[in-house]
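Key idea: predict the complex, not the pieces.
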Amino acid sequence: MGSSRSFTVLGGGLSGLSAAFHLSRRFPARTGTRITIVEKSSRLGGWVQSERVRVKDKHGHEAEILLESGPRTLRPASKAILEIIHLLNLESSLLTVSRNAPAARNRFLHLPGTKGLLTIPGSLPALLVSPLAKILVPAMYRDFRRINGTVLNASSPNDESVDAFFTRHFGPEFARTFGSALIHGIYATDSRLLSVRAAFGAACRLEESGNGSVVRGALSEMMSSLRKRKSQGNGATEETYDMGDIAHLMKGVSVYSFRDGMQTLTDAMANRLRQQENVEIIHGDGAASLTKTIDGFQASFLWLYEGQLSHASTSLGNPSPISSLPHVLANPSSSVTVVNIVFPPSDTPIHPEGFGYLIPRPKPDYPSQGTTLGMLGTVFDSCSLGGQDISFSADRRSPKFTKVTVMLGGPYGPPSPDPSSPEFLPALLATLQQHLGHSEPLPEPCLVRVRQHRDCIPTPTVGHVARMAELRKAVQKKLGQGAAVIGAGVGGVSVGDCIESGRRVAMEF
Ligand SMILES: C=Cc1c2[nH]c(c1C)Cc1[nH]c(c(CCC(=O)O)c1C)Cc1[nH]c(c(C)c1CCC(=O)O)Cc1[nH]c(c(C)c1C=C)C2
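Result:
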């Protein structure tokens, strides 16, 4: 480890920060290793952005509200994130949501052309009385009786769209109603474009182990993991992640965030990196000139080079070899308009208690671009993350401000009316009123914040996994073992996936 090495991380989003963080742990200053992060924007952290705003209503109630414009919650299943939280001593900043909380239990759908929300049943008794039973019950039955049907063999490169996979197993009604809504809420894209192998690799494995049926596969997996747990006892520990006692804090937790928002995590990583003598962060101009030479460089990719920055740019050359790598620009990505709205305290609740609601693809299809607001769903932030807000009301029992986030765009294209026009907010509030089933107009918001995120979520289209394997091979062949490509555009899109991929690549060098 004594010889001096040099790493260049292109991109200071979640994957880049994680890669640089783990590289700097493995190769501290005393090893003579240099680590350079190149980020074209003026800040690190990618799409994660938290902001505190002061709000006041007509009656003088005041509060400080935490708004998120990117991801807002994390899942305890990602050990790579828990490890970073532990290593950066962020445990005391955590805000957890219990599995029994309404935000974890209640999820809703709004069906286009109807008024109000439908509860997605979370138990058998709830299913039996749900209006959605007429879609859900036949869907489960259809899958359950599939025997020796076509399977996307896990070891083959076969692939299909999420919509085609759900249609095969659960029927077209389920695929459109539930499948498209789920994909709106994760990828903000059309489920007919998305690769099932990339998005739901686990479902393909269940299909195979269930001999053609995902439900049977899931049941048999549940049984075998129960058996395993019994034979191992409950004390199975994770030895490869340095998580301290944090797994204990996550018992019974459905999702979590931080009291000051998700930026707590990215700021803490960035600050730790800034403190390292051997880490340099290049923003803006320096990064822009490098980015220009990398004509295929996309925000969703992270290129990690072992070599000097100057070597990285000269070795990329002009025209850059990246343009000759296969599949770099194969995937489209979705743009999302994120609207944070804060409503004043009121005795009449704005929405039911729960996570929020999603909206499926309309029938017969998405309208042509620029003709609709294009709402994908709404998150009821106060339910899960109300603990981030600070009320200055003397009476602790008085009603609180309500924060929600409306997501628009994706497959609908840019919202119409345009968010900068005066018609936008009235149209948005009227649509929200209809979705939430209110007969009266919603109260005037105290604050509305609109952010337009261009190309923020990559869409791994059908064939993605096989294409990325070819890309990785080509990277190694052209740029050598000292180069790697990771990030949301290559692997998974969740915060956990990005942090995990940065960690993995740093450990491999
Ligand atoms: C900017 C909008 C985003 C939309 N999806 C994502 C972002 C950042 C990314 C994303 N959202 C979810 C996942 C699955 C993995 C997970 O961590 O749960 C991913 C990769 C699920 C999810 N969807 C919504 C929320 C609040 C969450 C929890 C995770 C998070 O906070 O991002 C709601 C939601 N997200 C989008 C839409 C259109 C939407 C609608 C209500 C797009």
